[in-house]
Fold these 2 entries.
Entry 1:
Amino acid sequence: MRRLEVAHGGIPAVRGIDLEVRAGEIVCLIGANGAGKSTTLNAIAGLLPCAGGEIHYAGARIDTLPPHRRVAAGIALVPEGRGIFGRLTVEENLRLGAWTRGTEATLAEDRERICCLLPQLASRRGQLAGTLSGGEQQMLAVGRALLSRPRLLLLDEPSMGLAPRVVEDIFTLIGKIARDGVALLLVEQNARLALELADRGYVMEGGRIVLAGAGGDLPRDPRVRSAYLGER
Ligand code: ATP
């Protein structure tokens, strides 16, 4: 994206950012609360309009497309708070992820593949999603997004509210998805883990990108160390 600007009710939240995610890359976006990270992801997914700048994806400009056309083009968002339908079953939630694909014959095959990737869910397909643990709901949200066959997966705070061991499982899953060739843009409060996993990272402050670099380099930057890694 180039010079992206997004506002909430006329108040700027993202103030002209340039950001790139290449195929198969894990890119993380870190920054304090209110920096504009979620706003950026929501604008890429088409849930918020751009007030300025351009978003390009797979060689085409997409910032005027409605959200469902972006999903069909290969962009999926796992929103902050997961967006699981608690009164639907695991299976029904997964099916919703595939709605842009109509009645494609490969759907059942994909559901099997995703259940292999997420063995925690395989035996619970008839269970109401609201009765799953937080970690299982996060896995389900990722599985549902994968059913749209994304080439770019946007993940908003996947570790939020989860126990450290479960966070590890989520990050392992993210690594596996990237190895399958899906590009990932990850918004995370857990900067240490996110930078360990990411190929590249961006730091956002006040709606602007203030720092960018390789995942391995950013944790060495004194500003990142003091502001986001709790070091002096
Ligand atoms: P967080 O980790 O708290 O989600 P963030 O970096 O994702 O932080 P955003 O949620 O993108 O930040 O918020 C950026 C700015 O936009 C903040 O000033 C926030 O108060 C404002 N904002 C976010 N959502 C809305 C909304 N729906 N209406 C009005 N202002 C909003």
Entry 2:
Amino acid sequence: MEKLEGEKHVKYILSVEKRKDDFESLVMDHLRINGAYWGLTTLDLLHKLDCVDQEEAISWVMQCYHEDCGGFGGNVGHDPHLLYTLSAVQILALFDKLDVLDVEMVSKYVSGLQNEDGSFSGDMWGEIDTRFSYCAICCLSILHCMDKINVEKAVNYIVSCKNLDGGFGCTPGGESHSGQIFCCIGALAITGSLHHVDKDLLGWWLCERQCIDGGLNGRPEKFADVCYSWWVLSSLIIIDRAHWIDKSKLINFILNCQDKEKGGISDRPDNAVDVFHTYFGVAGLSLLEYPGLKPIDPAYALPVDVVNRLFFRK
Ligand code: GRG
């Protein structure tokens, strides 16, 4: 079996941060704060968060903050959005620096995006998606501000996106997709509402995502992709059905997607690596209890020690 090239992945992540004008940096320009969350969380899972200049990272995150509304943009000077606000809050949680936030303003921004039916818009332009329900709920939970939203309505909206196959989509009636399932199951777990889930039915749909090559796909008839090692497996763990897949075949699939020379992980074997797949590969291996990695929390998508610090200060 291949082994995890941890040190090379650390070097790869640090090098992406330095290269500002190559293809990967340019395509990530509008979601740089998501990239920072993926990269920094990977470093933390590999016990290497101290390789980055914490002050510099936090100062950059705060440059993405909009003090007029309380939201964060994907990069300096970009418009605020829930997707980026969650990443900013997660990065600050990683560094144990949530105290730099005006929690009142940030939670006001997030709660202000809840709609009458309990759903969340991603930003002022109004697109609705269960991804944004997850972002809002995860963010407010980290900030200990769940009382700022109508949790019952938020949960009912998510439940209205449940399909007959046990999965969840973006909006009511939307096709089941593993990414959306993570968002819905993660949000239901955080709000203590998993009793709305038929665990056997959903577990069956999720374990059928394992392909012949050992990797997981996002929905039927699609190719396996390393990122679903996170979206599918975290959901299976939350509903106690992770033993329904072949874990060693999945570990092999992820390890075979590594660039063993330059570091980084790709979506499938022999493809080009990127920070997104490097994060989800390492996070997937962490869920699979691969030796040497910090354990990651399947609902908050943060290392377990960070989540314990948030809720138990230990
Ligand atoms: C903190 C981990 C974390 C997440 C924040 C943004 C978000 C909340 C969740 C995104 C969930 C999602 C929809 C993931 C799927 C991403 C993806 C690879 C989509 C690709 O979709 P298609 O249709 O791919 O191109 P398939 O594999 O179905 O062909």
